[in-house]
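Hello again, I could really use a second opinion on something today. My current little project is about how a certain protein chain folds up. You're getting the sequence in one-letter code plus the fold written as tokens. Here's the protein in full, and shout if anything looks odd to you:
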Amino acid sequence: MRSRHSRKAEPVLGTSISREAAWPEDDTMEPWLSNPMEKLYADYFYFHFTNRLTPQGRNGCYICYEMEGIRSPTSVDRGVFENEFYPKPRVHTEVCFLNWFTKLPWAKTLDPGKKYTITWYMSWSPCVDCAEQVAEFLKKHNCVRLRIKFPRLYHGNKPKYQQGLRNLDAAGAELAVMCPEDFKYCWDNFVDNLGWSFWYWKGIRWNYHVLDEKLREILCNPMSSLSPRTYNFHFPNLPFASEWNNTYICFQVEERKNSSPKTYYKGVFRNQPSHLQQGYPEEPLHAEQCFLSWFDDKCLSPPVDYNVTWYMSWSPCLECAEEVVSFLEEHENVSLTISISRLYNCDDEDEQHGLQLLHEAGAQVAMMSPEDFKYCWDTFVDNLGWSFWYWKGIRRNYYALDEKLREILCNPMSSLSPRTYNFHFPNLPFASGWNNTYICFQVEERKNNCLKSYYKGVFRNQPSHLQQGYPEEPLHAEQCFLSWFDDKCLSPRVDYNVTWYMSWSPCLECAEEVVSFLEEHENVSLTISFSRLYNCDDEDQQRGLQLLHEAGAQVAMMCPEDFEYCWDSFVDNRGRSFWYWHGICWNYHVLDEKLREILRG
């Protein structure tokens, strides 16, 4: 039981109490005063209300209470309770308050149709027995809204105490860890501070974030924000982060009714170890499952549309992806956008399949760009006004991960990094080690000679292990485009002008596939410009280019102006001008003459 020694002198009700009033060790215990007190002395507040993670000797428990509208519609009543002991039976401070409150003349005449707010600032979170009694009190007094804030968790790692907090939460009590601003509020309103300003002790904010995260895990509720240290540790898009075992979701939920925004929620979820859950004794509860459970319980309403956005430290695993897909299928009024810092086991076919399932179910899946990381810092991190710091490699890592994700999803990339473009597109006469092919494409939809829609993006060839249905051979960039274009765009009633800017000319097999595609779709016109000629002395590869030309495709080498156009249109160049490398014009004329020879046969 939580208790504290009595004192020799019995102060008058409503006076402040100081540790200096404590009796000598050899003195006799005497009865203690009645609750409530008016205020605490400063030294008692600093001793009992510190949010140190491992405090020693804090056996007493205090409640600084605030009641709004109880005595009269505009009244605010404040005071302090502590637990009772010798010579009375030991009674915890929560029970002391409830016993006192139920005897108040105003408490017996509360209007059931109104809401009365009571706030407790407690030096410890409630124990199991007190939580049970408080929950029973709330059931009998439906008109009372109880907010409980505390600086520390009482036996926060023991399941039965965690269950007590969950029972309180289920009964309607609003539980929270005291933030630094709450300590200052208590100092100003419940402490005999002699006019001194509140002193923020070392670690006050860091300890708050640690304890708040722990409480949210226990309650399966979202955290309001992350600490800078947690964000900077768990969210960087490092290429190798296998030891980062926790997943965080920074989420936004926008409710829309009749196409107008209605309500907005945001917060943070984290995966939970198994011992923190009800009904999950063997397996941990993943962050995605935490969100879906909370969203289903707290938010979902059939007549409302929801736009949900997740910013995740890891991409979903296969099991979570399947759960999310099932959720989206059951709730057609929910749209989901997922932005990911890192790809979880991205070379594992099962995890790749999970991402593909999400994409096919309509979820928009993308890698977090540097701008997304800054947005999360500004929106979900208690950053104390500090600006976001872009770590080394943030943009390079984004491009590498974005390219990997696009390979998995078989979707075009939105742009290339300057480094990738400058490496793969120069029209060098000898580039035998450049094994990847990139297509920067434009698609114009025209109906009745009027421009209807416009698409652009980038495809790259894919290794064989990244595909479904291509287990033996890699998927070339041309095949990626044709598959995507056939699935997403094609309509027989629309004319299409397609333009490709390619790092390599098509091989014979791809040329034959493109010719077949053009023969089947007479409403598609194709223009192909390439930087380099693939195996231009090989007769088979020359035959492929001739087939394209005969099928009506316009085939040409990229001129210097084409390289600049691609830089401006398909490269995330951050406002930098295109740099004409040495030999760009000379190489173009040499390659153009070679192509003309091939097409003449």
Summary: Residues 584-600 form the longest helix (17 residues).
